[in-house]
Amino acid sequence: NRQITVAELPTGALTANHFVLQEIEMPTPGEGEVLLRTILMSIDAANRSWMKGATYRDAVKAGDAMPTYAICEVMHSNSPRLKKGDLVAAETVWADYTACDARKVQKLPGIRPVSNLMSVYGIAGKTAFHGLVGIGHPIAGETVLVSAAAGSVGQFVGQIAKALGCRVVGIAGGAEKCGWVVETLGFDACVDYRDPGMFKALRAACPDGVDVYFDNVGGQILETALFLMNERGRVVCCGAISQYDTADATGPRNLPGLLVVKRLRMEGFIVMDFADRDATALRALQTWVQAGRIKVFEDIVDGLENAPGALIGLLAGENKGKRMVRVGPD
Ligand code: NDP
C-alpha cells in the first residue's frame, strides 16, 4: 500500500520536492469502518489552498497524507451500510488503500463511465450548477463571464449558461486554450488573460457588459471583471486560484466602491452548502448531457505516483476539463 505525504509545506510555488511517496501497512478497518481501494482521485486547485492554512476545512500540515475526494471500491466492510464490491465516494487520502468510517462514505449509482461521477455528476458539475444557478441567477439574454474557462468547473459553467440562453464569454490562458473553449465548448468568445491587451479584448467580447461573473481565479482578473459589470450584476466567488500558489497575492482594488456604484452583489459559496439541491442539479445535468447540450471533458492522469505532478500541472494550466488521477481499475 502506497501513500503520498506532504514532506514540507511550500512557501512559494509547489514542487515535487514537497511530497514523498511511502510504502505503508495495509490499513485494518475497525468497528463500523470499511476498507477502500482507490479507483480515481480528484485533483483540485483546493489541494493547494489547503496547504496555505485552515479554510472551510483543517489545514494540511507537513507529515499529513494529502486529503482527496475519491471514488473507491469497498474491499471489506465492518458495517451493515455497505458491502464488498460497492462503488463509493469518500474523502480519503492520496493512497492505494484507506480505511474509513462507513457513515462518511456515499454509495454511488451505477453510472458509466465511472469518471463522470467525478466530473459532470461530481464536484465539478455540481459546483458549476450551484454557483451559477443558485447564486448567479442568470437570465436568458444576459452575458455570463467565467474565468479558468477550460478547467473542470469553468467548462460546465459556460455550457450550462449557454443551455440557459445566455451569451457566454470565457477567460483562459493562451490562444490555443481560448480557441478550444470557443470551438469545442461552444462559448461565444474567450479572452487570453496572459495577453497584455486583456481588458480591451474583454470589453470587445462583452459589448453589453457583464451581468454574471463566475470567478474561479480572484486577483487581477477579478479586478478587471468588476470594471465590466453591469448595474445589479452578480459576482459568484467560487475560488481564487491565482492566489493559491504564490506568496504575494494581490486582491482587486476599487472595492467596495465598484460594488456600491454598480449595486453589485458578490457572494462566495462552497459546493457542500447546496447538498440539499444536488438531486435537482444532477437531473438538470443529466438532461443536458443526454441532449448533447453539455459535453464532458476529462483529463485523466494514470498512476498514484503521478498525483503531485498532476496537481502542479493543474496550477500551471496544463489541464483541459476535469483533472483526476486513476489509481486502479473500475
Ligand atoms: P481547474 O480544472 O479549473 O484548473 C485550474 C485552472 O486554473 C488551470 O487549468 C489554469 O487554466 C487556471 N489558472 C491557474 N493559475 C491561474 C492564474 N494565476 N490566473 C488565472 N487562471 C489560472 O481547477 P478546479 O476545478 O480544481 O478549480 C477551479 C476553481 O474552482 C478554483 O478556484 C477552485 O478553488 C474552485 N472550486 C471551488 C469549489 C467551491 O465549492 N467553491 C469547488 C471546486 C472548485 P489556464 O490555462 O486558463 O490558466
Q: How do the strands and helices of this protein lay out in sequence?
A:
Blueprint: E1 2-6, E2 19-23, E3 33-42, H1 45-50, E4 67-77, E5 87-93, E6 97-101, E7 106-107, H2 123-136, E8 143-147, H3 152-163, E9 167-172, H4 175-183, E10 189-192, H5 198-205, E11 210-215, H6 219-228, E12 229-237, H7 257-262, E13 265-268, H8 278-290, E14 298-302, H9 307-315, E15 322-326
Parallel strand pairs: 8-9, 8-11, 9-10, 11-12, 12-13, 14-15
Antiparallel strand pairs: 1-2, 3-4, 3-6, 3-15, 4-5, 5-7
Helix pairs in contact: 2-3, 2-8
InterPro entries: ADH-like_C, ADH_N_2, ER, GroES-like_sf, MDR_fam, NAD(P)-bd_dom_sf
Domain Enoyl reductase (ER): 12-325
GO molecular function: oxidoreductase activity, acting on the CH-CH group of donors, NAD or NADP as acceptor
Number of domains: 2
The bound ligands are: NADPH dihydro-nicotinamide-adenine-dinucleotide phosphate
What separation lies between the terminal Cα atoms?
A: 18 Å
Radius of gyration: 20 Å
CATH T-level topology of the largest domain: Rossmann fold
The structural class is alpha/beta
Describe the 3D structure.
- The chain is an alpha/beta fold and 330 residues long.
- It has two domains: 2-118 and 297-326, Medium-chain alcohol dehydrogenases, catalytic domain (Quinone Oxidoreductase, Chain A, domain 1, Alpha-Beta Complex); 123-274 and 282-288, Rossmann fold (3-Layer(aba) Sandwich), CATH 3.40.50.720.
- It is 26% helix and 27% strand.
- It has nine helices and 15 strands.
- The strands form three sheets. Strands 3, 4, 5, 6, 7, 14 and 15 form a seven-stranded mixed sheet that branches. Strands 10-9-8-11-12-13 form a six-stranded parallel sheet, with helices on both faces. Strands 1-2 form a two-stranded antiparallel sheet.
- Strand 12, helix 7 and strand 13 form a beta-alpha-beta unit.
- The protein is globular, with a radius of gyration of 20 Å.
- The chain binds NADPH dihydro-nicotinamide-adenine-dinucleotide phosphate.
- The site of NADPH dihydro-nicotinamide-adenine-dinucleotide phosphate (NDP) has 32 residues, from helix 1, helix 2, helix 3 and helix 9.
- Keywords: Oxidoreductase.
- This is Enoyl reductase (ER) domain-containing protein.
- InterPro entries: ADH-like_C, ADH_N_2, ER, GroES-like_sf, MDR_fam, NAD(P)-bd_dom_sf.
